[in-house]
Design a protein that fits this description.
Number of strands: 21
Radius of gyration: 24 Å
Shape: globular
CATH class of the largest domain: Alpha Beta
Largest sheet: 7 strands, mixed
CATH architecture of the largest domain: 3-Layer(bba) Sandwich
Number of helices: 20
Number of domains: 2
């Protein structure tokens, strides 16, 4: 691909990208967000609980306690049950299973990865999603069906938050303390807190002064807006509404707000990239033609493509695989013996071309040229999570909808009656924070509890300078503990796939412990240190890309973090990581683990 033959100027785009990035850089990085605790704790209240569960504190013993009832916890419980592991209990702070989909019930909520690979355990449940992209209520119902299928409701503890985990060296059990006065015991702990579970608020000056109504999208207030997850927000017809945030959540709920509110002000710091979604009902003939094993085959096919691999056929054919296929085909570097620098140059040009398509799409749908220009994203495709929607851009053609583009600065302050941006005050009846979740903060802060392992060592202390694990799963001095996370493990855009692989790996290890009569397992110091070194060495490949990106949760809000390389996922990609774990199991010697 020769730069002289391109329909755009790469030099000019690089300059434009850098200018737009620099507008958004802030010294405070992740510290710009407020913790949803203390006077802001109402932002994490559960609006879905109809009746509080009354029960006595538990002090019983369970073979495995899983913390978190979202997809990760459900998949872990299902796979452990299939593996014949003994008693299993899920502890969940919400009132039911579902995790992200229990909390996020905002209008328009839907998965942005194809539902045929995103929804877990489809073959086990004999279920086929209704459409290519499932909406929130269907995903929540599927989560509940997993709980029923594997008998998880009987022993679950809902409306229960873990406050501390303490290792009991004498009995080789974990003691799980909760806000319900529990001191339950477990031989093994699986932590599946989820990467997107703690809402974040922007630290805007005056946020405490606002006298109108306000809520976070992860705790949508239908009592105020009317309607439901499908929209029809009929109580907003006489309301002026302000939305702060235009990421993946904002993109999905803003069209419904625009269709209902008397006036809608959308406060934008950075525009999202909006590609075609093209949702459609599931073809029953296609569904009937699928052979056993289709689900894993389809997930593997997706992972291969989105990791830059080559497949004979793209089975998924969604926005994610289209992005990667275009990048690879336009760069056309395979088999040419090019060095890494030349491959990076070609990939950048292919990325420019794809983002030019995204920006041109804005012009196709937005009538006002000034508004269209403000909605165009100027950054590399994967600097921020790509969005796919067929109604978002058209929303700005509505006369009641106004885009307040802050030129990367964000909202200046909040008054008792509204929002100040670009020196102008917008009086609103309601402020909705579509500001996402904590990602770059410390693990124990996001989890909401700390762990005390051998000799009183706290996990927050051990991880003060970054993660230290073996395979992202085990941690020295924290025996019988399994961590389901992307850090130092396999990561894929379709995260439930990684959860499933991890859950099956955990099931194998627990069964080995039981069969061998072991009371505890943990990684050796040598194995843990070696794994951390491997993670750091592989992570350096993407450091320059992240530094050039516009600020966001992908790159720690544009702030270089010495822990980023250590905290990253396995750098060779998900499929090589999964193969590495399969080979580890096949060897059968539990290499790197100390068994007692």
């Amino acid at each position: 691909m020769q730069e002289s033959k391109l329909e755009f100027d790469p030099v000019a785009l690089r300059k434009k990208y850098r200018i737009e990035r620099d507008k958004r850089l802030r010294r405070d990085g992740n510290q710009q967000y407020l913790s949803v605790s203390g006077e802001f704790s109402n932002y994490v209240d559960d609006p879905h609980i109809e009746q509080e569960i009354k029960r006595e504190p538990l002090t019983d013993t369970t073979q495995v306690i899983i913390i978190g009832g979202g997809f990760g916890g459900l998949i872990a419980a299902a796979r452990l049950s299939q593996a014949g592991v003994g008693s299993i209990r899920v502890v969940e702070k919400g009132g039911d299973f579902g995790g992200t989909w229990y909390w996020n019930r905002y209008p328009g909520a839907a998965c942005d990865t194809e539902s045929y690979i995103y929804l877990p355990l489809l073959e086990e449940l004999g279920y086929m999603p209704k459409a290519k992209y499932a909406h929130g209520p269907e995903i929540l119902a599927h989560s509940q069906n997993i709980g029923r299928k594997f008998g998880l409701y009987e022993n679950a503890c809902f409306q229960t938050e873990v406050t501390e985990l303490v290792w009991d060296e004498l009995t080789c059990h974990w003691i799980v303390h909760t806000n319900r006065g529990d001191a339950m015991r477990a031989r093994f702990i699986v932590m599946s807190n989820g990467p997107l579970n703690r809402p974040k608020l922007p630290g805007i000056d005056g946020i405490k002064d606002y006298q109108g109504h306000t809520f976070h999208t992860s705790r949508w207030d239908y009592e105020y807006t009317g309607g439901g997850p499908e929209g029809d927000l009929n109580r907003l017809t006489d309301k002026k509404v302000g939305v702060i945030g235009t990421g993946a959540t904002g993109v999905q709920c803003i069209p419904h707000l625009g269709a209902a509110a008397k006036a809608l002000y959308v406060f934008q710091r950075t525009p999202s990239s909006i590609d075609v979604r093209d949702n459609r009902p599931t073809d029953p003939q296609w569904a009937a033609s699928l052979a056993p094993g289709w689900h894993k085959q389809r997930m593997d096919n997706f992972n291969t493509l989105t990791s830059g691999g080559i497949v004979e056929e793209d089975l998924v054919k969604d926005g994610w695989t289209e992005i990667i296929r275009n990048l690879i085909s336009m760069a056309n570097y395979r088999g040419k013996g090019l060095d890494r620098g030349e491959i990076a140059r070609l990939m950048e040009l292919a990325d420019f071309q794809k983002m030019e398509q995204i920006r041109n799409r804005v012009d196709q749908w937005v009538e006002d040229p000034e508004v269209a220009e403000a909605l165009k994203p100027y950054y590399r495709q994967f600097c921020k999570r790509p969005c796919f929607h067929d109604d978002y851009l058209q929303t700005y053609n509505r006369p009641n909808v106004q885009l307040i583009d802050t030129q990367g600065k964000g909202v200046e302050k909040i008054t008792d009656s509204g929002v100040v941006a670009n020196g102008q005050t917008y009086d609103v009846d309601c402020i909705i924070f579509a500001t996402g979740f904590e990602v770059g903060t410390d693990y124990t802060r996001r989890a909401g509890y700390d762990l005390i392992g051998r000799q009183g060592l706290r996990l927050s202390e051990k991880w003060a300078d970054g993660l230290q694990t073996l395979h992202g799963l085990h941690c020295r001095n924290f025996p019988n503990l399994f961590i389901m996370s992307t850090g130092q493990a396999g990561f894929t855009t379709n995260f439930p796939t990684a959860m499933d692989e991890t859950a099956q790996h955990i099931g194998y290890i627990i069964n080995q412990c039981v069969e061998r009569g072991m009371t505890s397992i943990e990684p050796t110091q040598e194995a843990e240190d070696a794994w951390v070194r491997e993670i750091i060495s592989l992570a350096r490949i993407g450091a320059a890309f992240q530094e050039d990106c516009t600020p966001g949760y992908y790159n720690n809000e544009g702030q270089p973090d010495p822990r980023s390389a250590r905290n990253s996922s396995y750098g060779r990609g998900p499929n090589p990581f999964f193969r590495k774990m399969a080979a580890w199991r096949a060897a059968g010697d539990m290499q790197g683990l100390e068994l007692r």
